[in-house]
Amino acid sequence: MPRRRNPQQESQNTEQLSLDFGSIIKSATVFSREDLASYDPVTRTIDIMSRIVDSERAWNTTIELARNQLLEKDPRELYLEFLTDLKGTIEQDSTKAPRLSRLLEQVAIRGFGMTYEQIRVHNPRQRGTGWRVDPFNKESISAHLEKHIVGKYFLNLISADDSIWNGVVPLIGSSDVSQHRSAVPIPAPFFRRRVPFVLNNSAGTLLKVEQGKPEYEALFDPRPDDELLQWMLIDPSYQEELEPEHYQRCLASAMDVGQYKFDHRYLLKPDSKPPNIILRDGSLFPQDAYLDNFILANRRGEFTREAIRELINCLTSARDAGIIYCGVAKSVQLKVYSALVDWYISKYIDKRWVAGNYTLNDGQAMTLLLSSPSVISDNLRETICTCMIRRSFTTRANLNTKADLNDLNSYFSHYENLSSFNIQPFRQLCDLGHLYMFFMGHCKSPELLLPRYDFFYHDSLGSPELIMKKIFYSLQYSTPDIDEDHSFMIDKKDEPVMFLIPSVTLQAHNFSKNLGEFITEQTEDRIMARYISYLSQLT
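and the corresponding structure tokens:
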């Protein structure tokens, strides 16, 4: 781990960045005292609960009808109509405007990566008039959708093609990272305490199919060296040096670093036969993706920089070797697909359907929409997929709201003048980091949540449609399996939220979890051995 920095030097580096309060105030939603006084959190909670129940009850009625119609609808035309309708409602209905303006931002800005030169919402306090969507550059928005959507229809039928891998059974790889919290006792004479630490570790698996039988090979390093432990072991000093928010984000980035390093070392290494396709657990982009955090002169900044450097290694290796590098994302927060489905049902199918009040996230909504006993075959030879949406690292890093994407050099030059850190890796990832995301149906009923698939795109792999078909065909060998370990934000007494993910991805998760417990015990012993040696030197 790099040497601990001088706090004075750290302060000098970070204080050079100034906040643009004018820009923040213009883009913020400001609530009056009357707004807050009329807000009823109990009613709001019940509204959300009832929305989820109503959506699930409509699975084999309203949602089935929407599914059948969306199999024949052009997604580019739908999204343009959807955004146009949102603009009209925001400007005409002030009671719905705050919610719908946030939804428009989520879809157009956060999802599709549009800029404020294309579409922007102004609330009454910003302009002194009513709610306005200005600009709304319909021609530019249409061109953006054309460039960022792949697929003839919003939903598309897809069939397994035995010739898609040229008669070769693909070698499928996967990886996962697990985090373990532990503590070592302090056998001091008076103060008997335990010192906590956090350890991250990664593991993976290869799926080979020989004579029609799947065979899994575990990939891991049971004894990580000191260099790797620098990124795996989060010792107690991190909490001493970092503010709580920085500490939590550092833990998240440490997981990214560990998994990227594993992917590059074990799945993408050029000195052995790599897999044809990697279905790694989690999204491809790092959890900490902002340039302001990349140049932080503390440990959070170190991990953010390392995660981006390691991701570049993975992407360039995948590109050079012609490997499909795909993430299987379960914790999905975007509402790019679900918002459109909500709007479509309320406009064309059921006028009583409330759009924009509470919108399910993409994972929840697509699970309901794509789970179909009439479409998905028993052997998963045929299924239904969403259209693909292109998403770039510049969108994940929020640069589309901060900079001119056609002149990023000027924006980066400003940061280079403010910081002593080399931001070239960040710039490189902006050029390289483009993925396509989509959902596909795995199950005939919506009892199990579906993941989102994000694959890194480069021209050498062929068309995005071809890559999607190869991912689907890989599921013929890595059949979907139930994952009960990734239940988010529920108590232990509640029933687990279960996901249906490729079996190779689930195997990687199990290997990583079991290995982490073993390495944690080893690390405890290693720390205690050094501590006992230290005590012996004192006597």
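(Above: one complete record from the training split.) The chain has a mean pLDDT of 86.
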